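Open question from group meeting: does this chain pack into something compact, or does most of it stay loose? Before anyone orders reagents, we agreed to write out a predicted structure and look at it together. Recording both the input and the output here so the notebook holds the full record.
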Amino acid sequence: MEAKFGILEIPRSSDGAVAYAKLAEAVGFDLVGVADSQSLFREPFVTLGLMGQATEKVMIGTAVTNPITRHPAVMASAIATVQEISGGRAMLGIGTGDSAIYNINERPRGLAGLRDYILTLRKLLAGETAEFGGRDVHTCWTGGLDQPPVPIYISAEGPKTLELAGEVADGVFCGMGLSPDVVALSLEHLRIGAERAGRTLDDIDIWTLARVNVGDDLEALTNEVRMELASTAHHAFRFTLEGKLVPADMAESIRAVQSGYQPSHHEDLGESPNAKLMSDPKLLSYMADRFAVLGTPEACAARIMDIRAAGIHQILFTGFVENRRDLIETLGRDVFPRCRN
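Structure tokens returned:
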């Protein structure tokens, strides 16, 4: 299977996010996702519209939005507009919600709510009337859009969410980790969900999420993405540690990060309050080994090939570092040619 690579943009400014999207396309990325966290960053759909005008080939979309801050009719209209602007390159990534909802004192509403939202959204994108919250809703114009249907991707960090993705989604961003045992478990739960709907894994566009930093000093690289690893500890394990292959001796340290995590400082660069939560060297090493691609270009390429050997060939990277431009260029120039096919 062909390898593909994506980059996730946190739109700290719209101009910056668009510039990084153009650069990512130029150096060989296949996907540019935009995070949705209205209390912290720029509006994702406006940013995606600008990206759609500024790029020509990359798939673009939310990575990810949530079912709480936007009514499904509003969501359908927004992503269909991006589809129109980009000439059919849009996708909608959605999860149960993280910083977008925690910063307005909301809470996730569970997988049943996510499922209903996605099924409603699919009908609306097809121009059909759907029932949502006991009421009929519609977005009439989206059914007449002369573009392919917008694919819907679920961000999934746990067994039940992976199974939901296998059952109802066009694609998935797997977030349980990168080690072979975790990849195998993720694919098994996707398979269970797919079989429930009479599908196979071939019917699902499968990606995994990875933190990334490239350079010669592994300790410095890891230190720079500590806040990303804290975010992962907070999010990937927040509902339960059960069924996620977490070693018993890591559970207490992970829960300490979760209890101290500050959504208002989500993915802040530098020595942020959340970065300071990763002060346990053992936990930091564990999280980096499980969730990150770090090291020299050669080491990163080898790590990517290990992920591919485990069964996932498409990776959506974050890499929220100070020198973002150099990281994107280095990945495209020095890493991807070593492991694309």
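Observations to bring back to the group:
Residues 180-196 form the longest helix (17 residues).
The chain has one domain: 4-218+293-339.
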